[in-house]
Amino acid sequence: MKKISSRLDSIKPSATLAFTQKAADLKSQGLDIVAFSAGEPDFETPLHIVNAAKKALDDGLTRYTPVTGTIALKTAVAQSSSDCRKVPCDTKQVIIGVGAKHVLYNYFMAVLDEGDEVIIPSPYWVSYPDQVCLAGGTPVFVETRPEDNWTLTAEQLEKAVTPKTKVVLINSPSNPTGGVAPKAILEKLVDKALELDLLIISDEIYRDIIYDGVEFHSPLTLAKEKKENVFVVDGVSKTFAMTGWRIGWGIGDPAIISAMGKIQGQSTSNATSIAQAASVIAVTKSMDFLDDWNSQYVERRDIMIERLNAMDGVTCRTPQGAFYVFPNVEPLVKKLGKDKNDVDLATWLLEEALVATVPGTPFGAPGYLRLSYATSKELINKGLDRIEEALKKL
Ligand SMILES: Cc1ncc(COP(=O)(O)O)c(C=O)c1O
Asked: Atom 7 (ligand 1): residue with closest C-alpha?
């Protein structure tokens, strides 16, 4: 008897989690690993948010909440989205889930029929294709260009569309590239997608982590018509350093929100009541701390970029959002040996230099590595010293 469902046959475990785990295992064996692999801020959740969670416990907010989220959090999210995306939003358009990942999954489950195609620009965040497959859809990858800040263009979209295409995915700022979609390219892409009557899912989880005076543009703001076809995914994980709290949200057509609520009602029910209460404070109170965090990210990014580009065989663009750099390392892969790839290089760096990175292949970008700079300058320099030393042996 085949015990495991064939639904899982083509599903891969998350590569970022796998490399993070590998690094953690080596650490637990006593090895001094420098980890550039994790996708989370190294800052602590701001104290006023932590205190709000303590207060929620003291106030006895320990029971089920409505499945799709408390009215307080939905109201806070609707208000903040109306303010920042300049598109009115009410609570019927909001669903609270167990992190943005959960919201994305429920969205695909709610809108996809067997064989529906989802256009995913590559490089892409590792979970998108597997979530689409789990929901019965077919991921269709379209390679983007570094010089477009890795943004899908309207022309590329038009070429990739088939009668089965239902959704196009946009993720800016992007994981893994840190690329921020330029307004001119994004606007044409949104126009084209809506002209083709596609749904757009916009993963805006890194919206607030953006540098160099570059502006964030949401497809929801840019859409001139059919705004109900745009679904935004966001949450507290990255902006507020709250990855473990597991609160994310979706903003979109009430019909889709209601379908997602049905799925949630038969699976997870509500996200944690205490984390929801703390997230209300996160979303409604001052975000002053972000300026300091973002300037620290910029300093760290600049060290990484300068030092990586000084290494033979490494070329790295300067990203303007999120907290990842995405260097091209093809010459190093070649040096490693015939038939070697970026996964071998990341494994070699972990074993030889005791530095954890994530290979580009699971992001749909062979020949690249992803390094997170959400860690201290000391550790960044220590890790890069080690990589430099190790590369001398190649
Ligand atoms: C692009 C992208 N979307 C969504 C998520 C999921 O975020 P959450 O922690 O809210 O589930 C991540 C987390 O790494 C991400 O990088």
From this structure: 100
Question: Would you say domain 6-44+289-391 falls under CATH 3.30.420.40?
Answer: no
Q: What is the pLDDT of residues 57-80, one digit of tens each?
A: 999 999 999 999 999 999 999 999
- Mean pLDDT score, 140-157: 97
Q: Is the CB of 99 under 6 A from ligand 1?
A: yes
Centre of ligand 1 from the C-alpha of residue 205, in Å: 6
Return the CATH fold of 47-284.
Answer: Aspartate Aminotransferase; domain 2 (3.40.640)
Name 267's Cβ contacts closer than 8 Å, sequence gap at least 6.
none
Beta bridge partners, 50, equal none
DSSP code for 142 = E
Q: Is the CB of 171 under 6 A from ligand 1?
A: yes
Domain boundaries, the chain: 6-44+289-391, 47-284
pLDDT tens digits for range 88-138? 999 999 999 999 999 999 999 999 999 999 999 999 999 999 999 999 999
Distance CA(173)–CA(153), nearest Å, equals 16
| Helix extents (H) in the chain | 15-28, 47-58, 71-85, 100-111, 127-134, 154-160, 183-195, 219-222, 254-265, 273-284, 289-309, 330-336, 342-348, 377-391
